[in-house]
Structure prediction request, 553 residues.
Amino acid sequence: MKMNGSHILVNTLLELGVDTVFGYPGGSVLNIYDAMYDYQDKIKNIITSTEQGAAHAADGYARSTGKVGVAIATSGPGATNLITGIATAFMDSVPVVYITGNVSQNLIGKDSFQEVYTTGITMPITKHNFVVRDVDKIADTIREAFRIASSGRKGPVLIDIPKDVTVAECDYEEIKADTKKSDGFEDDKLLDEIANLINQSKRPVIYSGGGVISSNASCELRDLIEKSSIPACNSIMGIGNLDYNKYFLGMAGMHGRVSTNYAIDNADLIIAVGTRFSDRTVTNTDKFAPKANIVHIDIDASEIRKNVNIDYDLIGDVKDILTKLLPKVQRQDRDKWLEEIENWKKLDYIETKEAGVIKPKELLEKLSDMVGDDAIFVTDVGQHQMWACQYCKVTMPRHFLTSAGLGTMGYGYGAAIGAKIANPEKTVVHITGDGSFHMNLNEIATAVRYGVKVITVILNNGNLGMVRQWQHYLYNDRYAFSNFDRSTDYVKLADAFGADGYRCDTISEFEESFAKAMKNDKSAIIECKIPDDSQVLPMIPANGTLDNLIVTH
Prediction:
């Protein structure tokens, strides 16, 4: 059937199972949006307040479902507004296809209106990108982009399409997706060797990351933990991998539990699964797990020995490798090792309560209890993010979404919209700080317009909290430009956008406000005043070790 490029694009998206697209119209993509007009009953178009909001929404959709997210933007500033969102997805290995328009080919290279070299700008932050020069390449390019985004180590792919290609015509034929899978990991001898290491170890620790979630291997990981009785911790990206049972160690690293970091420091075997040993976890690469053999299981060979010198590597799909490793691992108890870790738990930092004051631990534990196990938490970046990592009880994968690698303030609201649209039956809670919230509050308009209920909880300390914390510990309390001193009235702001607004100064007020927000149908903004000197503890400074551990204000 003969179609123009725009209709071919939309039909190919439908062929690939796309049901939602996030974006913002503009001159170079007008033909694409005109074609979308004919398919409103098949593809939901969410028009965000900015293209950056669309980029994050597609990311949140992808993280919460495992499917490929899609965002569309026009050329020039539309495309450049996607950049932070693309980089966020790239750092956290999230499968998103970003489609940008560009000026017609006869105008390229002439500094035309809203022209930028989009593929050149995005090349370092995409898994792959394409420029479509001929209309007969559109369908195959989109299919290939989806394949690349969702296979191997997942990640963002960009497709740039000049405007004249979207109006040119050619024949389109639907093609069934190829579902053939590879044979998987085949080094049985190495699996035997790793199993033998596990069976003989006395003080092993499993350290899991986002790769476990990407490969849908959380169940296999839990089976391994249960069978081998190995205590397990996670990176930020690995939150949701683990059960809250006797083997649960929580988060490791800079703001991880003291007991968890002691366990790693004294382990004789580290099994790292689907993680990249980032500097937020391995604060000092030369002194990480000094007594341990380290086994690294990951799909991306480029991560092997990139940050940490390891002893064994198994390169391949995590789910496949764990499935083949599990039968070789012996059942045993490790009560002595678990008792040793239990003693270290006495050293864990415990935030003190204070009557009439909202403390982050108490607030987030109360929030977590009120929403239950099936809620999706989405955070921005800063102190609130770390408190959410520490205190929100997340027991399922794809239920904690955060910008871990890039650390993007402003990620949260867009991502929360994407997660809620993908999971309308679930409660979606956006946890943020007053700094991050000011970077994305315009997306309240998007949530209200489309009836997408997002409950936002703002931990307001009147400061750029994490910057202030570093200034306290590392810059002798020289609080250079980290105090906002803003007069934003969040209740009035919520009302202006058409959402519900609440202001809380105590835990009881928060409990009452959050219960109302849960009950009502509208999006809500709940401002919670917290002390301006609240700190995320424990803390190991950059390049530090347990010798540099900070546990006091």
Summary: The two ends are 69 Å apart (CA to CA). The mean pLDDT is 97.
